[in-house]
Write a structure and sequence with these properties.
This is DUF6458 domain-containing protein. By secondary structure, the chain is mostly helical. The chain has helices at residues 3-19, 29-55, 64-70. It is built from three helices and no strands.
Length: 95
């Protein structure tokens, strides 16, 4: 059931529940209209859930092969001596 069919059921149920005078002794048109409206609301909800379920996919955004090309590894060896990152105008003169 699509959303349009659910809306149609809600409208038909509302017409039966609120616009038609109930003169039958065998069944109550007001209750029937409310039941049809609830069925239409359930159909709308179900179609919404199914439509959003299709959009939830677990496809990777980046192809794993492309990601493997650009993956960086840490350097195998770090500097033996500490690197001085002090700006040159703030460094003390070396002796």
């Amino acid at each position: 059931m699509r959303i349009g069919a659910g809306i149609a059921l809600v409208v038909i149920g509302a017409v039966l529940a609120f616009a038609v005078r109930d003169t039958s002794d065998t069944f109550n048109l007001t209750a029937l209209g409310i039941i049809i409206m609830l069925g239409g609301a359930a159909g709308i909800w179900l179609s919404y859930r199914l439509a959003n379920q299709r959009r939830r996919t677990d496809t990777p955004i980046i192809d794993p092969e492309v990601e493997r090309q650009y993956r960086t590894a840490p350097p195998e060896r770090v500097a033996d001596e500490p690197i001085d990152v002090t700006p040159t105008h703030l460094r003390r003169p070396s002796r």
